[in-house]
Amino acid sequence: MPTGGVQRQVKLPPAPESARQARRFVAEVLQAARADSLVDTAALLTSELVTNGIVHAHTEMQVVVEATSAWVRVEVIDGNPMLPARRGYDAEALTGRGLEMVELLADDFGMQPLENDGKRVWFRLGSVGADSDMPHERATARGATVTVRLRNLPVMLYSAWQAHADAMLRDATLAELAQAGASLPNELTLTADALSALALGTNDLFSSTTELPHNVDVDVELPRAVAPNFPVLRDVLRRCSERSAAGELLVPPSLPEIQAVRRWVCDEVGRQSQGLSARPWTDVVIDDVPVDPMSADAIDAVRASPLAQIAADRWNRIIAVSRGAATLLGSTAAALEGQRVIAIIPARLRDAHVAGFTRQMLGGAPRLLGHATEMPALRPDGSEIVVLLELERRTDSGGRPLFVATLTPVTGAPPQGAA
User: Fold this and answer.
1) pTM here?
2) Which among 119, 155, 163, 304 is least buried, having the fewest CB atoms inside 10 angstroms?
3) At residue 331, does pLDDT exceed 70?
């Protein structure tokens, strides 16, 4: 394509250092084209597309850059035909922002499946003349599909699961690539394809500007060829969570409720792709969780506090309760310690709590940390008391995280009667 500018390309392996190499390559091309004002943004967006290829495509990539002093077009070509999709996470999620960033910062972008298998994802920065022959094609789905109905989908839990699954897959992929001479297991590619297909199938639901209810029925259109990947997705993420619990991955292990969503979604895809009827999601209460060996000093500091304090570990399990907190909640420390935190949260708020806790463990925006928040707490007799909650994150002497909540009763808000 004659542009009168600079055109260069480079091939990169699916390795962690490729994102850095791609940034450097794009910067060099733009400097040669005298488009210095576009360097930072172009390098950032290229890095996002290449990282996406590393984690999800698992094939060699070709980065093609065309630039003049007024505009730049960058495309990343890989050998995986599964098109990327913007993830439907909540506003505070830390992961899944790559494609959204491209949409927001680029003047134009697109993606297309290639005839010889694989895909092209591209973006443009800057203004292009009306007589330019630069392509502006957009992608459309291709191939046979199967429609899966996810009945009574728990919106907040599902969104938290997708964010956690993407972060865990990224961590596992980079861990494999970091091993000298290691090749990626095929199951990671199948897992990435399944997650991408789900994100694309539910994109319209989460891109809606209207507030979603807690649970919805949603029809998800998936490529039929991807449906067999979902048992692999289920098992790979289960093993990744086990590796996380053992300290082999940086991403924290998934909470039991998030694991339940994973099993339900994957099972529903498998069942319905074989012609079986949809089974709705049913709420789960899971008390059996692993025990983190928290240091005694961290636990004793909460138990001895003159304030009403409760501490929880990364499994969302209560590990320490002060006398004031036990009294406030109408219980005893012995009865509360060992339970999940959801035991003191009204049922209507539990999905939001699990989703928010998952976001905090992934390093997301601190919606509650450091802020006093008024909320109801559940007592053993079913009544509720309104408290002012202040949450802080601590670490014990072994570096393990714990979350400490200080509870203050709200004056003028007496306990509500048992439901």
Assistant:
1) 0.72
2) 304
3) yes
